[in-house]
Amino acid sequence: MTKDETPSLVDFLVVGAGPVGLVTAILLGREGWRVTVVEKWPSRYPAPRACTIDHEALRILQGIGVMREHAELFEPSRGERGGYQMRNGAGELLRAINWNRPAESGWANTSGFYQPDLEAVLESLALTLPSVKLRRGCSAVAIDQDEDSVTLTVIGSNDHSQHDVLRGRWLVGADGANSVVRELTGIESIDTGFEADWLVVDYQPLDHRSWDAFVTQYCDPVQPATAVNSGPGRRRFEFMRRADVSAEELGRTATAWKLMAPWGVTPETARLERQAVYTFRGRWAREWRRGRIFLAGDAAHLMPPFLGQGMCSGLRDARALAWRLSLVESGRASASILESYGTERGAHVQEIIAEAVALGKVICELDPLKAAERDTGMRAALNDPETVTVEPPHPRLGQPSITEPGDDNAGRLSVQARVEAGGRVGLFDDVVGGAWRLIGLDVDPLVGVSAELRAWFAYLGGTATTLTVDGEVRDIDGAYRAWFEAHDCRLLLARPDFYIYGTGAAHDAARLLGDLRHALGVTVTSTNERNELIEKGTQP
Ligand SMILES: Cc1cc2nc3c(=O)[nH]c(=O)nc-3n(C[C@H](O)[C@H](O)[C@H](O)COP(=O)(O)OP(=O)(O)OC[C@H]3O[C@@H](n4cnc5c(N)ncnc54)[C@H](O)[C@@H]3O)c2cc1C
Prior knowledge:
Elements lengths: L8 E7 L3 H11 L5 E5 L12 E3 H9 L2 H5 L4 E2 L6 E6 L4 E6 L11 E3 L2 H14 L3 E5 L1 E8 L4 E7 L6 E11 L6 H5 L4 E17 L9 E5 L5 E5 L5 E6 L6 H4 L2 H8 L9 E16 L3 E2 L2 E3 L5 E2 L7 H20 L9 H25 L4 H15 L35 E4 L2 E4 H4 L4 E6 L9 H9 L2 E7 L4 E2 L4 H8 L4 E4 L5 E5 L4 H11 L7 H9 L5
Parallel strand pairs: 1-2, 1-11, 2-8, 5-13, 11-18, 22-23, 23-24
Antiparallel strand pairs: 3-7, 4-7, 5-6, 9-10, 10-11, 12-15, 12-16, 13-14, 14-15, 16-19, 17-18, 20-21, 20-24, 22-25, 25-26
Helix pairs in contact: 1-4, 1-8
Bound molecules: flavin-adenine dinucleotide (FAD).
């Protein structure tokens, strides 16, 4: 890829080395782009916040090599009644959700993990990429942009007299809930009005006690609480602040021990790692882009953590943004596709925030009468107290989007399962891979596609695969067959972020690829054409 030779100009500046900034940098760095990440703290943030991760986020981490070497960081959900239980003050089961199931991305529906360990792995992966630089101890304080680039001023976090000016073609603000990038660009947030203070206590159990659920939400109006597995060898309790307790008192170590004592978690049975008080909120940015500047992760959205979706949503942002930026910067798509980053991601995350806030209102009810009414309603809905429900699939991408118009499957998450090819058995992305994946069930998906369109698809980083029971690439668990049959199609075109571009009948690939090319507003059609243009000195 051609890069600007100006020494001080990099392709991408990323503000914030939390999970979202690091994954963004890795995704872009793996494509050879020059990325500089600036991070306020001189060393890694030692305390965890996220402690559960979903299947889709694990697939994103799989794509950057985390799961190959570090799958042991993640402990799949287990326990009785699906692993996710909601109970009332009397301990009665109100709702059970199946978090223990294998999910459509090829990974456990939900796993526990320890955020500092994941961030350490992400940082080391980022630093193995020759084109990625991480500058710790630098705080972003000013941003300016023109038609071609963004200028970022940083100061030393410990020594404010030190300052430096960096330039990038684009900038991603992944600088967390109090985002300076959001503030400096004047982007407003829309607030749901939900607000609750919670004490979060992380500890290492010293006994071998087994908990009957992976997560239990104690919907007790006397003291709403959450108990959760937070990765191998660790657990967490969360307690809501009651009106008669100050935030300062809630944050004391003695309070943490007092609140955990009814569960037998005491200094004799546990080593306390830390306790902190957080205000849980639900809000999102009105805009996700200002010119060459984008927001991602907590900078763009915040949600109460009852569904474990904050970081997962941020990793989706990183994945959705990186493929667009890379295609645009390499001339393989027009800059117009960048608009759909915010429209797709905004609607998607707003639905998740609404669900997390609705769940929060159920869990955080402090009025005993309303809590009793809630319990009656939930009991009636449960019917059979042993019923274990399955959460609905993740929301569909918002519109306008880069998806096939009028296709009911488009904008939904695609499936990943095990395949066998060339004697190798593994998940599809590892065995076959590809940025864009065209898959045909029992058919060659490229039948009827012109040589020119095939070349363009290859240039885009696409792979075309025929999945069969006994062919070159075998659908060994029948998971793809089941998916195609349930969705009444034979072809699937999935994007680099695993969302479905479109589906169709056996001979629909020419239509799908032609429409995709149009949607990407592509200015060149193949590597040859691009090389010719470069030789002539004309950038496509
Ligand atoms: C109690 C709790 C429990 C949670 N549980 C879950 C869960 O189970 N699952 C889940 O998916 N999510 C969960 N979340 C949410 C999750 O922790 C966040 O969504 C995630 O950490 C956000 O990542 P990020 O990279 O966007 O932001 P951050 O992790 O906040 O990283 C932002 C980085 O930017 C840096 N920065 C800030 N300002 C500047 C500046 N001016 N210049 C340079 N650098 C700057 C910061 O130092 C920081 O390192 C939970 C959150 C909380 C509080």
